[in-house]
């Protein structure tokens, strides 16, 4: 009886020992955990470096372009296409002009409200740009563009009318530079179908923002204007590429 | 009648018990350690109305000063959606891939470049965004 008990105990201990060994070899949870921690550390380091690069990229080599709304001391406020930006000038700021009327050397006191400029430099965390260079721009260089979509309800060789999703009619002029496309194929003006859905890339000028001229008319085969849908959306505060 | 079992029988029965015990232990371990199996799910095919396109431009940043005349415009919209990429020189139409990603390289003009990016669908829905970049040949 005693012998049987000893044997039973031995078998039990051997089985437990065997099971523990197999577990240690297959699972090794501690080494897995170390590996995971190491991988996690590498991922965090990589993301931190990427974030640092991104922030650096966002703050350096910036260009604020728009119309001067105010000049206060050495600071200029510029109305860009989307919002108002602040620009700081200093003794090292270089001034140039693309307008032949205002001759170089240009200085801060040569700028006035309403002038169009491009201020180049680096920004701080608050978006204040330290201008290394300010270029006075020609306002005629600004040709605001916008994309208009709607149903073509009228056309002749000089103009067309489009019914947008808000059911308002928009008149768009055509000129010799207007391009016409049906899907990806270039066509003539006469090939564009009435009552079709079109996307028009139209531009205007700063002094006549409401006069639109088509640069590209793109007919969408099989498209139809769903007037029950919401208004076309526009990211940013400006609905067009307007300089105002 | 009261004769006990022999040693060989006892030894065999012990090995049997050992084997059975190990089998039970491994089965139990396999049950608790194995990852949950993916359940086979059946999702019904639903034909939904086309959604309005979205637009997220990852490059270029707005108000960027660029020193390279070639610029990569890339971003994401709804899958298989037409995208207009327009600059001062041209209007280009491309289609986003099945994940909604799109990219196109543009040649910049010297000075100001106003990029207009528009995603649109066949129902007259569109969404636009702009990127103003300034191309300079000279580093500051």
Report on this model:
The complex is a heterodimer of chains A (244) and B (140). With 244 residues, chain A is of the alpha+beta class. Among the domains of chain A are: 62-141, Nucleic acid-binding proteins (OB fold (Dihydrolipoamide Acetyltransferase, E2P), Beta Barrel); 145-220, OB fold (Dihydrolipoamide Acetyltransferase, E2P) (Beta Barrel). In chain A, 23% of the residues lie in helices and 36% in strands. Chain A has two helices and 14 strands. Chain A has helices at 2-26, 29-59, and strands at 62-72, 75-79, 84-88, 94-97, 116-123, 129-137, 145-155, 159-163, 169-173, 179-182, 185-187, 197-203, 212-220, 233-234. In chain A, the strands form two sheets. Chain A has a five-stranded mixed barrel. Chain A is flat, with a radius of gyration of 34 Å. The termini of chain A are far apart. In chain B, strand 7 and strand 8 (126-135) form a beta hairpin. Chain B contains one helix and eight strands, in the order H-E-E-E-E-E-E-E-E. With 140 residues, chain B is of the alpha+beta class. In chain B, the strands form two sheets. Chain B has a five-stranded mixed beta sheet, with no helix packed on it. Chain B has one helix spanning 7-33; strands spanning 55-59, 64-66, 70-77, 82-86, 91-95, 101-107, 111-120, 126-135. Chain B has two domains: 1-36; 55-135, Immunoglobulin-like (Sandwich), CATH 2.60.40.10. Chains A and B meet through helix 1, strand 1, strand 5, strand 6 and strand 7 of A and helix 1, strand 2, strand 4, strand 7 and strand 8 of B.
